[in-house]
Amino acid sequence: MTKQELKTTLEESFKSIMNDVASIEESHFFAPIGEKWSIAENVLHLTQSVKGLNQGMALPKAFLEQQFGKIDRPTLSYDGVVDRYLTVLATGVTARGGFVPQMPENPSKEVLLSSFLKHHQTLADFLNDWSETELDEYCIKHPVLKMLTIREFYYFMHYHILHHRKAILKGL
Asked: Taking the CB of the first residue and of the last residue of the chain, which one, N or C, has fewer CB atoms within 10 A?
């Protein structure tokens, strides 16, 4: 995907979740989906995930290069990133640490969705700061997928949203 296609696709994915849950009653929003996370917990997990990446994306490129180097392999395709992620998930890896949703005291659907939208739009907007070439040169470390190019990380974030959207849709 080109940078613009990636931005458009990412925006469509997170806006689809916003549309999916907009009319859900607050009590239903926070209710567990069987033994799985509630819609609210899925949204919070996605927000926590994107906040970490946004912190990395806000760093100067020179700092990213110093910390992680530049990638020395061909960039994975979208499907390649998804396959890599699904392979890792198949080993039983689950969210841990700061990626496990911890509901704030007196949570609000409106506040959670506002934060979700704000942080995901920030991620999409960071694409404006990168050239097509830089997206394939610079990298950031993912907690379980290890080193990903910036483009690959955006592929992952898009798929991650879709992955959790499936769980959310089960709760509707």
From this structure: C
Q: Which of 138, 123, 103 is nearest to 52 (CA)?
A: 123
Structural domain span for residue 54: 3-170
Q: What values do phi and psi take at 134, rounded to 5?
A: -65, -35
CATH number of the domain within which 111 lies: 1.20.120.450
Residue linked to tokens 């080193």: 147
Low-confidence ranges of the chain (pLDDT < 50): none
Helix (H, G, I), strand (E, B) or coil at 38: coil
Note whether 154 and 6 are within 8 A (CB): yes
152 burial type by CB count under 10 A (0-12 exposed, 13-18 middle, 19+ buried): buried
Tokens of 118: 């704000």
Q: What SS3 class is residue 43? A: helix
How many separate domains does the chain show? Answer: 1
Structure tokens, 121: 């739009």
Q: Is 67 left (phi over 0), alpha (psi -120 to 50) or beta?
A: alpha
What residues contact 104, with CB distance under 8 A and at least 6 apart? none
Q: Which residues pair with 139 in a beta bridge?
A: 149
pLDDT at residue 104, rounded to an integer: 87
- The pLDDT, as a whole number, for residue 171 is 79
Q: Tell me, what amino acid is at 59?
A: L
